[in-house]
Amino acid sequence: MLPSKVELIEVGPREGFQFEGIGEPDKISTADKIRLIDALSETGLKDIQTTSFVHPKQVPQMADAEEVIAGITQKPGVAYSAIYLNDVGLKRALATGKVHITGKITLTASETFSKRNQKRDSQQDYEMQRKVAALFKENGFEVSTASIMAAFGCNYEGPVAVSRIMHLAEQLHQIAEEAGSKLKVLSFADTMGWANPEQVRRMVTAVRERWPDLRLRMHLHDTRGLGIANVYAALLEGVDSFDTAVAGLGGCPFAGHKAAAGNVCTEEVVFLCREIGIETGVDLDKLVEVSRFAQKIVGHPVPSKVINAGVQPAGLQTAAQ
Amino acid sequence: MLPSKVELIEVGPREGFQFEGIGEPDKISTADKIRLIDALSETGLKDIQTTSFVHPKQVPQMADAEEVIAGITQKPGVAYSAIYLNDVGLKRALATGKVHITGKITLTASETFSKRNQKRDSQQDYEMQRKVAALFKENGFEVSTASIMAAFGCNYEGPVAVSRIMHLAEQLHQIAEEAGSKLKVLSFADTMGWANPEQVRRMVTAVRERWPDLRLRMHLHDTRGLGIANVYAALLEGVDSFDTAVAGLGGCPFAGHKAAAGNVCTEEVVFLCREIGIETGVDLDKLVEVSRFAQKIVGHPVPSKVINAGVQPAGLQTAAQ
Q: Model pTM greater than 0.90?
């Protein structure tokens, strides 16, 4: 059931620098953000989430979203996307004329988390997604991608039932249809690091049974050390699309950001895939260099183990049988 | 295929403090070693590897092996084992009268590594294991356990073929038989962190096919971030015995010990098992406290993510369906 190749969406510049900047909005300079994205462009990664168009008062560390987009060198064949949680953010992204618009709508499995993070209850969140979907349509974009946040569990509400996910996935399909689109991708975000490998497999199996043509994606965090086991579990179910963050950015327990759970580390996922014979299109050696650069930018040890241990010595890498 | 319960052998005090002490033999005091072992005894762990009877000139940080054994409070029902790489070490362990003797013999899949680590080539290593087995017999101990070091790959020789493992397992069975014993447990040590989940599954499948009654054990390192995925892979194949180290001791990349690859972290394995419904007999909350104490002793951040993120809030832990 393992896929022969996977696509990786690099979210380090967005999610990583968002968490790094909590309480220190100017910690990472715009120039460094641009340098990191440009370096990632040279590794073979084809999708890079660059920044977040959120309210600068709420997330001041992302206030330079327009500057970041304007400053990077877009490599042909690479999609430079961004995040927008509402219609205002989407309008800002559209206004740059340089953001790859993914036509993505998002619902959250935990209403408590939704109220805290997006300041909307489930009904308001649903209405907001309809509004965003309509805006995509108005601007000629397909609503092709949907995401469920806190899909596995929530620090306020506990674990998430498969039935809840099925309900949300149904709603997301309805919103897309209303906008004249058909969902192609459904992403599961383990926002607070609750997933375990068996749960990942159960959820994938249930959703795939109902929507066999939907491409499934995982956005996993390594909050409690199970990140890479969850990736492997998803691969075993044939999942072939993952959000990952270079160096494991997106929160570092060693920096005292206890609430900030790091994403699964891009180079570790690339390494896992290489070792078990799955193509990623990414040059692991180049990526390890970029990861070391990311570590330098943030100024503290990052979660990545690969960059400290190094990958296996050249010439010894061929898998024996 | 998941087992309903697993046994964990805690190797933190031995492997952790061995690596911590490289170049700093007095870094961890004997008193702290004893305190950590005594604290581990209260967590529900039933097997604790306490120290290593190796030559004090070669591994000076383990020179206090006898003192450690003499100083700990042995809790009834807990086995306090130790390491001995040759007959001299075994005699020292026997002389204490307080070490739980496991009757373990060990071969190494990489001859280059064997020469560097044990100063013996494959033939010399084989002969040494015969000698050790005879000594076990002489002292009334069964040769019940065997181990293969560098079972998945070696930084000098590359990946290890399944055929090589089958050959070594055959030799280990012969040595045990010669000593009038029958092997009950075969352990695979990923000494240099080369294992990947698919390789773990292939190796387990091959060995189990040949020796269906043998209990298989994994001693996995998290050198390149795949440790917990390898644990999950082994669980999927029904493996129910693991060596683990509290806090992920056994080398910490953040301490600059690049060569020292941490063991998979006990509390993360316990956490994984709890989340997917496998019994370990370990009190996770108590273990997390002990892990924080281990972190204090070593004086630098440890690899464990569970102790930084914390386990899920009480009352929210029941797995939803």
A: yes
